[in-house]
Amino acid sequence: MTDGDVDVLFDRLVSSSDGAILVVTVATDDERDGCLVGFHSQCSIEPRRYALWLSAANRTTELAGRASHVGVHLLAAGDHELAELFGGLTGDDVDKLASVAWRSGPGGVPLLDGCARRMVLARTELREVGGDHLLFVGEPAAAWAPAGSFTPLRLSDASDIHAGHPPGDRRSPGSPRAG
Ligand SMILES: Cc1cc2nc3c(=O)[nH]c(=O)nc-3n(C[C@H](O)[C@H](O)[C@H](O)COP(=O)(O)O)c2cc1C
What is the mean predicted confidence (pLDDT) over 2-15? Predict the structure, then answer.
């Protein structure tokens, strides 16, 4: 039993968990991009697998369907500027990677110099799951995890950022252009 509109309660419930946010990067032979991601989780222990949910509206999602790997970067509490760059702008308009230092990693993925905690996932799955985000699943191909304490940037820290591509901007209904 719930008292009140279930969507409002759902939103309140989910936001109360205040998850950490990531930057996901991707490159094909001639294109590169990256976006901010709040929907993510480890989804298998053995074998290790990590899931991301990528918006059907995003250019990054489109490229991920043509790439073998993606880069996953944990943002630290002080990384609001990076969150704004990757979450507030779209690669349809700007080359986000032109304004940050990065190097090419396994599978050609852009690895952001400013994010020490990161991994590269080799894609095992990218498919429609009935919503406005596609399910991406990957296996770890490389990981960097410096010792020491870490405070992540959280969804609540990014509440002032307006997504460069709201989910309603879906690029091609019924067709992810990604897979
Ligand atoms: C706080 C926040 C969380 C977001 N979470 C996701 C997410 O989980 N998955 C996703 O695909 N996009 C997410 N976005 C949206 C993209 O990061 C944003 O639309 C970006 O501009 C897309 O860039 P692109 O078109 O270059 O790929 C989020 C944006 C914000 C501000």
Answer: 89
